[in-house]
């Protein structure tokens, strides 16, 4: 199985990446999976290019494909201006809208103060619910002071256990929502254009069937 | 194989001078560009259709009718005609009329249009885009192919005993291309009817174009119109040339950097490596264009985007001289040498009339 970890930390070393690594270790202690980390900082320019051109440069395409193909996802962002960072949101704006359907997702956020702890609930959770992900009950917020206290450990363990239990191979093979995809096409440049269609190619609805469906109305 | 140009019809400031042409200037420039296309020996001129500023071509058959009168050989086409928001009855009438005016030098490319507000402005809903393209085109086909049509559908008032006039020239409707960048449904539609499929090609990586064209070719064969290699494929391209490739890069860079579609994003170098954009010498353009065949197979129509992003008319006309004199003659020869037997020629009205006259005869003999 594949566990993909998206980290939107900007500094190096970054506490966001540190939290992401702790969540990854807690998950991998309970399930056998191959981890892959996507550092959004390294993709910042390519993410901006995708917005402007409508298609992803190669490294970004590979990252989007990795997220789409993952059996489980850990997504961690720093808190900027009371929400996820713009870079974090931009990356998930570019994810195909069906790519996360039914995928177990563990959310994490970091901040300078505990006053933002509910950002995982009021900002991150609705975003991933919109993307039809299976958002796990425990999301982990780490303020600066948490790195010196007891509770963070327990929350990380609980969250990692939840993700490990939810991960199952082929969980992501839910049928794509073809009708909805067609209905909103063509999409705007900012409207979630992904790099590739599934590896097995396009889903074809035979033309006569489409024609007949219209005539039946 | 046919070579030509397609235009978006954008009114864009020249980034090197800040000067914005008036709508009148831009429209006159488009007409001059079309006539130049014929003068330098190109085969096709296609105009976009838009219903919002900063674009001028809202009324393509008006423009193409004028060009028809000023040219002898040029095929007049569109890139694209909005099959979603236009009334298919009016498309049937307008393009049949243009066929007569232009003595058959007409074909048309159907597209959905990707400007959200245009749909409600014309009383439609963008979420119905694919269904509109399917129903409207099915009606359009009948209006051209049958003299009297009684029809009922989802998106338009029913028709009782309606005859679209004038009837298509020589009883053969304009050839239809279906243009789509990313919708497999449209490749499927083109394949179903045995129509042409045009991929814009210029804004996306080649692998994407390859995937869409392959799908169309497979489905074309599936519907029994011929082998996948015999499907009718058109491609876009985008070039800027000077004798010396460094001069081309230097001159085009400000237009690239500020272009409405992709400007302020990737560098010129990144974009030329990611997409078919070629900025350099005529020889570089020849080599790049020939390489398209490596991933789409032998194809029938190559259109270049030459007049966008605020390039002044004088520059565009110089580009067309280079295209017509140095690039296209070589491409014609090279593509012809590479083409195996059995690949169909690009569609023309006389050839399609001849084929239509042949088909009923065969049936009587059988």
Automatic annotation (TrEMBL), chain A:
It comes from the Bacteria. Keywords: Flavoprotein, FMN, Oxidoreductase. One of its GO terms (molecular function) is FMN reductase (NADPH) activity. Its EC number is 1.5.1.38. This is FMN reductase. Pfam families: FMN_red. The keyword Protein biosynthesis does not apply. InterPro entries: CE1759_FMN_reduct (IPR023932), Flavoprotein-like_sf (IPR029039), FMN_Rdtase-like_dom (IPR005025), NAD(P)H-dep_FMN_reductase (IPR051814). Residues 1-147 form the NADPH-dependent FMN reductase-like domain. The keyword Glycoprotein does not apply.
Automatic annotation (TrEMBL), chain B:
Residues 1-294 form the Luciferase-like domain. It comes from Streptomyces avidinii. Residues 341-366 are annotated as: Disordered. Keywords: Monooxygenase, Oxidoreductase. This is FMN-dependent luciferase-like monooxygenase. Gene3D superfamilies: Luciferase-like domain. The lineage of its organism: Bacteria, Bacillati, Actinomycetota, Actinomycetes, Kitasatosporales. The keyword Transferase does not apply. Signal peptide: none annotated. PANTHER family: BLR5498 PROTEIN (PTHR30137:SF8), LUCIFERASE-LIKE MONOOXYGENASE (PTHR30137). It comes from the Bacteria.
């Amino acid at each position: 199985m594949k566990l993909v970890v998206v980290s939107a930390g900007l500094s190096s070393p970054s506490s966001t990446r540190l939290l992401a690594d702790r969540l990854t270790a807690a998950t991998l202690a309970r399930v056998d999976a191959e981890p892959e980390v996507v550092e959004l900082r390294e993709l910042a320019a390519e993410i901006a290019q995708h917005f402007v051109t409508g298609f992803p440069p190669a490294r970004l395409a590979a990252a989007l494909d990795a997220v789409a193909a993952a059996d489980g996802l850990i997504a961690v962002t720093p808190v900027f201006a009371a929400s996820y960072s713009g870079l974090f949101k931009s990356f998930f704006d570019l994810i195909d809208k069906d790519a996360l359907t039914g995928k177990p997702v563990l959310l994490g956020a970091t901040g300078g103060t505990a006053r933002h702890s509910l950002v995982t609930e009021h900002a991150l959770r609705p975003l991933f619910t919109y993307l039809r992900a299976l958002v796990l009950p425990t999301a982990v917020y780490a303020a600066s002071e948490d790195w010196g206290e007891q509770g963070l450990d327990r929350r990380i363990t609980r969250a990692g256990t939840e993700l490990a239990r939810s991960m199952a191979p082929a969980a992501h093979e839910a049928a794509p929502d073809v009708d909805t995809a067609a209905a909103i096409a063509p999409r705007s440049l900012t409207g979630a254009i992904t790099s590739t269609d599934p590896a097995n190619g396009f889903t074809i609805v035979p033309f006569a069937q489409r024609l007949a469906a219209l005539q039946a109305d | 194989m046919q070579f030509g140009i397609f235009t978006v019809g954008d009114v864009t400031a020249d980034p090197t001078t800040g000067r914005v042409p008036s709508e009148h200037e831009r429209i006159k420039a488009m007409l001059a560009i079309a006539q130049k296309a014929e003068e330098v020996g190109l085969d096709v001129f296609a105009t976009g259709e838009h219903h919002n500023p900063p674009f001028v071509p809202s009324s393509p058959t008006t423009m193409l009718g004028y060009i028809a009168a000023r040219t002898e050989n040029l095929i007049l086409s569109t890139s694209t005609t909005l099959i979603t928001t236009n009334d298919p009855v009016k498309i049937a009438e307008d393009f049949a009329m243009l066929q007569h005016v232009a003595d058959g030098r007409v074909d048309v490319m159907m597209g959905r249009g990707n400007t959200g507000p245009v749909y409600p402005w014309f009383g439609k809903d963008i979420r119905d885009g694919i269904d509109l393209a399917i129903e409207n085109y099915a009606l359009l086909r009948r209006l051209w192919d049958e003299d009297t049509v009684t029809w009922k559908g989802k998106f338009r008032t029913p028709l009782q005993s309606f005859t679209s006039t004038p009837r298509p020239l020589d009883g053969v409707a304009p050839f239809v291309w279906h243009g789509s960048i990313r919708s497999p449904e449209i490749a499927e539609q083109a394949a179903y009817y045995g129509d042409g499929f045009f991929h814009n090609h210029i804004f996306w990586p080649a692998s994407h174009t390859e995937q869409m064209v392959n799908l169309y070719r497979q489905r074309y064969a599936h519907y029994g119109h011929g082998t996948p290699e015999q499907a009718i494929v058109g491609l876009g391209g985008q070039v800027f040339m000077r004798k010396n490739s460094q001069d081309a890069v230097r001159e085009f860079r400000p237009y690239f950097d500020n272009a409405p579609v992709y400007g302020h994003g990737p560098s010129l170098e990144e974009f030329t490596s990611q997409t078919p954009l070629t900025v350099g010498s005529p020889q570089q353009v020849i080599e790049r264009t020939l390489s398209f065949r490596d991933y789409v197979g032998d194809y029938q129509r190559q259109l270049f985007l030459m007049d966008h992003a605020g390039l002044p008319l004088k520059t565009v006309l110089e580009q067309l001289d280079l295209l017509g004199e140095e690039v296209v003659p070589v491409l014609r020869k090279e593509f012809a040498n590479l083409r195996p037997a059995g690949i169909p020629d690009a569609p023309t009205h006389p050839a399609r009339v001849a084929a239509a006259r042949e088909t009923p005869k065969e049936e009587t003999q059988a």
